[in-house]
Specification:
This protein is an all-alpha fold. 86% of the residues lie in helices and 0% in strands. The chain starts with a helix and ends with a helix.
Length: 247
């Protein structure tokens, strides 16, 4: 029964994908301007051609590295700040303001402000970190605050304190909140990083190629790079979720 249900779900997803590809094809044929809306076949052909170029994979690797590094920094600093906020009420009140502000500020505003303060190559990494930080900080802090009372009592009875309390009780009990934060940041990190690359335009990046394709009205390249970004983002998110399930 489970196998049949799984096969049915896969079949439904394939049918939905084919439906939207057909809509894309019809829209492309109706418009009749490949430089504005290329067909799915033309886009796939162009993506295959790009895959044959070393610069394509170099740009993919650099963008992926920026996403991973920005997310890792957000996790580390978010954990450290959540730990400090959980122990000290004053620290929590101080950090509540920037966390709320960062969540509310548009990504484009953050990118433009960052461009005034740092080199263009550093902007995507910084923006990725800044967009993911409040999500990780809030989730981890919420996890720390919802540690079951019996765990805390057990730690007091056995005098488990300091780093041992954090590693043996606090982190395991908060793992669900940490995983939820990482899942939320998986997509957000890619969107913010690529948007920052488009505006800051570091030459080795996927965002830079999106910008140049738009400037020269190369619709096939624009769509091919977009499909490449989506595929890489999905693979990154799937790999992250697989790692979290194994954790």
């Amino acid at each position: 029964m489970n196998d049949k249900t799984g096969e049915k779900r896969i079949g439904t997803k394939i049918a939905a994908a084919l439906l939207w590809l057909a809509v894309w094809q019809i829209a492309s044929m109706a418009l009749g301007k490949s430089f504005v809306l290329p067909s799915p076949v033309f886009t796939c052909q162009r993506l295959f051609q790009l895959c044959m170029q070393g610069s394509f994979w170099q740009s993919c690797a650099v963008t992926l590295l920026r996403v991973a590094a920005g997310l890792a920094l957000a996790c580390l600093l978010g954990f450290a700040c959540a730990l400090a906020a959980q122990k000290n009420r004053t620290v929590r009140e101080i950090l509540a303001v920037p966390a709320a502000v960062i969540r509310s500020v548009p990504v484009m505003s953050v990118i433009l402000i960052a461009l005034l303060c740092m080199k263009s190559a550093a902007v995507p990494l910084f923006v990725c970190f800044l967009m993911c930080f409040p999500v990780m900080y809030t989730n981890i802090l919420q996890g720390f605050e919802n540690v079951p009372a019996e765990y805390r009592e057990l730690a007091q009875v056995y005098r488990v304190t300091g780093g041992r309390y954090t590693s043996k009780i606090l982190i395991p009990a908060s793992m669900g909140y940490i995983k939820a934060g990482l899942s939320l940041c998986a997509g957000l990190s890619w969107k913010s990083t690529v948007a920052a690359e488009v505006l800051s335009s570091p030459r080795i990046s996927m965002g830079y190629h999106l910008l140049t394709a738009k400037m020269y009205l190369e619709g096939a390249d624009l769509f091919a790079w977009t499909v490449g970004i989506v595929l890489l983002s999905v693979c990154f998110e799937k790999a992250l979720r697989f790692a979290l399930r194994r954790w």
